[in-house]
Amino acid sequence: MTGQVFEFEHGYAHDLRGMPMAVREKLDRTGIRASRKQWQALPLPERQALLEMPCATHAESQLWRGKLVELLKAFSDVPVEETTPVDPTLWVMPHHCPSEIAAQCALKKVPVPSQAQWGTLTPLQRFSLLKLSRSERQNRDFLPAMKEFGLA
């Protein structure tokens, strides 16, 4: 499901105005930072194509990265910012729930997902919770995501 937009994202990502978690995961995986302004500078069909493009294997990641860089150079006046790609092990491997999620659960007063629950989530769901839990403040989408994923 490469083109998934979650229910909790519908206020900003259903029309691709904002970046869905599926795109954020690809950005982290490929080591590219893109602002909302850069994302919105891309034509809607190009944003949709980036959402739909697979990015799970090394070869797919390289193709996705190349396409994004090409588009950002063509449609945005902001230089492409590169960073170290994030190791996807935390969300791809379903072994244990990361401590950042436990901390956010404590702030929201919801139970921490068990190892069994964590293991049943898709990698994109795990990525989303991890991304939402890393906010300095209480993230407004964390609890809706937990509910959507059947965890709260």
From TrEMBL:
> This protein is called what?
Nitrate reductase associated protein
Species for this entry: Formicincola oecophyllae
